[in-house]
Design a protein that fits this description.
Length: 187
């Protein structure tokens, strides 16, 4: 049975859990009363297939571990199993973890209900092409030409664009195109 501890203080334990990308997600109901509180230091983060994570501090009698656990309050459909679950890191020792990674990102996750910057991040992560035109953005993700520039500036869009080598180019008519740099080792 997975158990989350800080030193000898049990934070969570449960026979039921979700294993996602090697992390044990405990049901929130299994967390000891008063052991977590909303983090004031850790900003939310975004995962292209799970959604937006909110962070909580882990609190024991003698210490506070800032941002040491996270929750996806409204995960995307493909990660719906982690709704109402919490995972730990940063000083929380989780034992009794089963082997393997468990659920991982699909190579072809659906667009689903993603809109705006989330739809653009999805397109950047899942496009099978090295060039995405404004027409492609509209057809594949519902992104209008006039909203693209604002969406491109979003911090999580930039994170995934940089991670996957996408750049923004304009032609002489100000038409926007996303271009992925091709890894020379793959030619």
């Amino acid at each position: 049975m997975p158990i989350a501890k800080v030193n000898e203080t049990v934070i969570a334990e449960s026979d039921t859990y979700e294993l996602v990308e090697g992390n044990v997600y405990f049901p929130i109901s299994s967390v000891s009363a008063g052991a977590i509180r909303k983090s004031q230091e850790q900003s939310p983060t975004y995962c292209h297939w799970k959604g937006t994570a909110e962070y909580f501090d882990v609190v024991t009698d003698d210490q506070v571990l800032p941002g040491a656990c996270w929750v996806y309050p409204t995960p995307y459909e493909e990660a719906s199993s982690i709704a109402d679950h919490v995972a730990f890191w940063r000083g929380v020792n989780v034992t009794g973890v089963p082997e393997g990674k468990g659920l991982v990102a699909s190579a072809d996750a659906p667009l689903g209900s993603r809109k705006g910057w989330e739809a653009l991040a999805w397109l950047i992560c899942y496009s099978k092409h090295d060039l995405i035109t404004a027409d492609d953005m509209k057809r594949e993700a519902g992104i209008e030409r006039d909203e693209f520039s604002g969406l491109w500036q979003h911090e999580f869009v930039q994170f995934y664009a940089n991670r996957r080598n996408w750049t923004l180019e304009y032609d002489k008519n100000e038409n926007v195109t996303l271009v992925r740099a091709v890894d020379p080792g793959k030619n």
